[in-house]
Amino acid sequence: MFLVGSVWFAVWSLATAFVPSSTIFIVDIALLGMGSAAKLPVAIFPMNNSSNPGGGFLTESCARIALFVLHPS
To answer: Is the pTM of this model over 0.70?
Structure first.
């Protein structure tokens, strides 16, 4: 999925450089975002599972932030 997302991102980055109108530019940027979204889960996975079998860095930090933000005072 990472390779597909990278190729998709590269193709639409190149296409965005040659758009003739603002409407096509907006569509190209939306398609560019789809390529970024396809790469993100694969890029985050190693960080999330690298340190602790029960949960990685992102799991722990998100839990701390959620506890801090959602804790009733």
So the answer is: no
